[in-house]
Write a structure and sequence with these properties.
With about 350 residues, the chain is mostly helical. The chain is built from 13 helices and two strands, in the order ααααααααααααβαβ. It has a two-stranded parallel sheet with strand order 1-2.
């Protein structure tokens, strides 16, 4: 849960925000009700923003752009209910960012990590991590086919309804590029905090941004197609789209499932290694030596594990839990603890 919470929970919460916004837009509200809605918007974005340092800066940028778009594109006043709802979301996002940056625990955590690099180095590290992230997607058949399937599914959904305004191809391109830009925005925070690209377990957030970009672009393309083709052609391309979506998503799901199944031995070995390390820790808690040595624990998810620095916060947390003085993880632990 500790690894899942910072990366999945903000996505779940912020995904509910558009539904909340559409519910809010269903009717006109008086001032008291409007203040309540603004408070809800503030609480939702401040909560989602407070869950992950990887996601929060991206959320702030998104709500800043959305607020600006409402002002300049829709040409609404500052007393407009739509503006107040979204602006409250922006304030909540900024509040979450300020609290996260100013939290006292940051200094303690940073003391175990390399000093923050300069802005140019941060950008270079972020670009390096982002290029690796994109190559991992586009060099993987199942991931690429899955992304194509999501886009085709969005195109099919777009053909099932009409927008109030005729969609433009330019909007589809902007949304697609926006997905790539917001996906990149997830990498500088990790480069700043770790002096290296963020670990792959955090990629669920840029994955989400990229999928949203392709999905939104597909909706616009599908809605444009709906207004172009005749009824006979609509039946044909709807059937073709459904077949392609089912085939691509089925292929991606099958390959991912078989890949996970093939890695079951690796997962089992990691669990066994942890069981062995814990047996040493439990025995040591009875003897209470000055230093306890355990074997190095390495895993596929790059989750922080104890290392050879007894002051590393993971080492200290484990030592405190088992009521030990110090623990050190090493590739060649002594046969007995001193």
């Amino acid at each position: 849960w500790a690894g899942m919470r910072p990366y999945t929970m903000p996505l779940i919460v912020i995904t509910l925000y558009p539904a909340l916004y559409q519910w809010f837009r269903r009717k006109s509200w008086n001032k008291k009700a409007m203040l309540l809605w603004a408070g809800i918007s503030f609480l939702v974005t401040s909560f989602s923003g407070g869950l992950s340092e990887t996601f929060t800066p991206v959320q702030v940028v998104f709500f800043t752009l959305l607020t600006g778009w409402i002002i300049f594109r829709k040409k609404v006043g500052f007393r407009d209910n739509n503006f107040l709802f979204v602006f409250a979301g922006l304030v909540g996002s900024i509040t979450a960012l300020i609290i996260m940056v100013s939290a006292p625990g940051n200094a303690i955590r940073q003391s175990y990590l390399p000093p923050a690099p300069d802005p140019i180095t941060i950008l270079r590290i972020a670009l390096s991590g982002y290029s690796t992230f994109l190559l991992d997607i586009f060099n993987s058949k199942e991931k690429l086919v899955g992304l194509i399937g999501i886009t085709l599914g969005a195109i099919w959904i777009g053909t099932q309804f009409k927008m109030l305004e005729k969609p433009k191809w330019r909007l589809a391109f902007i949304l697609l590029i926006g997905g790539f830009i917001f996906a990149f925005g997830c990498f500088p925070p990790g480069a700043f905090g770790l002096s290296e690209p963020p670990p792959t377990r955090t990629h669920i957030i840029p994955d989400f941004m990229l999928v949203i970009g392709f999905f939104a672009s597909g909706l616009i393309i599908g809605n444009w197609l709906e207004g172009q083709a005749s009824i006979n052609y609509k039946k044909i391309y709807n059937l073709v789209l459904i077949i392609l979506v089912a085939g691509s998503m089925g292929y991606a799901s099958f390959v991912n499932s078989t890949t996970l199944y093939s890695l079951r031995q690796e997962y089992a070995e990691y669990a066994q290694d942890w069981d062995y390390a814990e047996s040493i820790l439990i025995q040591a808690s009875l003897e209470n030596p000055d230093i306890v040595y355990i074997p190095t624990l390495k895993n596929w998810a790059r989750v922080f594990n104890p290392n050879d620095n007894p002051k590393f916060y993971v080492n200290e947390c484990i030592a405190e839990y088992y009521k030990l003085n110090k623990i050190i993880a090493t590739d060649d632990p002594p046969t007995s603890t001193p």
